Amino acid sequence: MAGDVPSLCLRPGDLQPGNRVHLLEDGAAAYPRMLEAIARAERFIYLEMYIFAGDFAGQRFARALAARAQEGLQVSVLYDAVGSRDTPRDFFGWMRSQGVRVVEFNPFPRFFRGFRFRRRNHRKLLVVDGRVAFLGGMNVSREYADPADGGLGWRDTQVELKGPLVTDLLRTAQELWCQQIRCDRVPPPEASPLPPQERGIPALVLSSHRFGKRWEIGRHYLHALRRARERVWIANPYFLPTIRFRREMRRASRRGVDVRLLVPSRSDVPPALYATQHLFARLLKWGIRVWEWPGPMMHAKTAVIDGTWVTVGSYNFDHLSLMHNHELTAILLDPGFGREVEAMFERDFARSSEVNPAAWKKRGWGRRLLEDFFYMFRFFF
């Protein structure tokens, strides 16, 4: 039985009704639809990426964006200085020469590693004409691209949205853009609010780019977790939640909720994975089931609670997302979409290996020391 929508949502009054959502598993599904939306744009395009790589995947997006800018559309790209630090500067210079408005978020001297270094824009967002938007955990790079095209096929999740929520996403994109440049010189384009879509679902968008909203995403997670009665399934690549969140997971498991966690078995940030594995023994003792994703990196930041409350976005359960990064996530409440996401989780669980509590206890002392060591430094990565 699906959960009750009003009780699972922290603020039901903030929900925008009538949104159509399309679930996109991996870059093989997401990239073509994103490129198609860019090709069909009529007025403007906003793209925010933590990593905008200069590899074949990035070049494909750069050419698509440049082509639209050459046709007179207002094309705006905001990339993060740290996330895209390996991308050649002339890659962005070429886009500028083609008429694309390209801005580096929070640039810093190469030798500087202070507070500004840690305040990053980790959001992944594409808004086209104020009528369609894409958000999730995917950057633009070969890691997420289809292996058939030469990509690495990282496991990640994106959603394509149409409806009133797109207006909110456009507003947050323009707000962050105007924090980086003087928008009075080139006013941002306006878009009429979209009417509710037929057979649409209620949803809201949460962004932590303003200080007063820094802990908003975590509050919504905690609220839904406290009210869970059947299932809590979470996929996250850097799972280092607060003590408060772990306590609520334990309470949910004790009241009979099926609590599951999907994490990578190999990570692009090995210290973060060792720190996460430090928590396994405790989670397993509480009755929480843990799965490890094989093969390419599992980078999805998704959750489904009671088959109704779903979140997809850029938010990691780590100190950087909680305290430093600008993050963006959508919360969608609908039993039909919830079943679709649960089916996706079931496919992922089937491909993954469940951690056996008895076998986990037998791991060597060397491994335990690594886990303990990196867990102590979990606030630094």
Description:
The chain has 381 residues and is α+β, with helices and mostly antiparallel strands. It has two domains: 15-201, Endonuclease Chain A (Endonuclease, Chain A, 2-Layer Sandwich), CATH 3.30.870.10; 203-380, Endonuclease, Chain A (2-Layer Sandwich), CATH 3.30.870.10. It is 36% helix and 22% strand. The chain has 14 helices and 15 strands. The protein has helices spanning 5-8, 26-39, 56-70, 89-97, 115-118, 165-180, 216-226, 243-254, 270-277, 280-285, 319-324, 335-351, 357-361, 365-376; strands at residues 16-25, 44-49, 74-80, 101-105, 125-128, 132-136, 157-162, 201-207, 231-235, 258-264, 289-293, 302-305, 309-313, 328-333, 353-354. Strands 4-3-2-5-6-7-1-8-14-13-12-9-10-11-15 form a 15-stranded mixed β-sheet, with helices on both faces. Strand 2, helix 3 (56-70) and strand 3 form a beta-alpha-beta unit. Helix 9 (270-277) packs across helix 14 (365-376). The longest helix has 17 residues, at 335-351. The chain is globular. The mean pLDDT is 91.
Helix content: 25-40%
Mind telling me which CATH architecture of the largest domain this is? 2-Layer Sandwich
Unreliable segments of 5+ consecutive residues: none
At the fourth level of CATH, the homologous superfamily of the largest domain is: Endonuclease Chain A
The H/E string reads HEHEHEHEHEEEHEHEHEHHEEEHEHEHH
Query: Number of domains in the coordinates?
Result: 2
CATH C-level class of the largest domain is Alpha Beta
Strand order, largest beta sheet: 4-3-2-5-6-7-1-8-14-13-12-9-10-11-15
Q: Characterize the biggest β-sheet.
A: 15 strands, mixed
Specify Rg, calculated over alpha carbons: 20 Å
What is the end-to-end distance? 39 Å
Helix count from the secondary structure assignment = 14
Number of strands: 15
Shape field = globular
Mean pLDDT: 91
Class based on secondary structure composition and strand pairing: alpha+beta
CATH fold name of the largest domain: Endonuclease, Chain A
The amount of beta strand, in percent, is 15-25%
